[in-house]
Amino acid sequence: MAHGHGHGKMELPDYRQWKIEGTPLETVQERLAAQELRDPWGRNDITFFDVFFKGFKWGFGAFVVAAGAESYLESLNKDKKHH
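The structure assignment produced for this chain is given below.
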């Protein structure tokens, strides 16, 4: 019943790419290990870190440069009429 709409098999990312090193979950894992406990599902929560601000400084810098360039170019054409 799929009628060949070109939907291929969905590719899932490799689970080994998600590391907890350098995230707040690393300290949680260390504190659990100090109490002889462990969280086997902790790696699943790693996807929630660095989602919104990953590359933010480069994106914001590009925005500032683009806005500045647009403002400068508009100031050059202030005297010209568009229509």
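Interim note for the steering committee: The CA atoms of residues 23 and 50 lie 9 Å apart. The mean pLDDT is 79.
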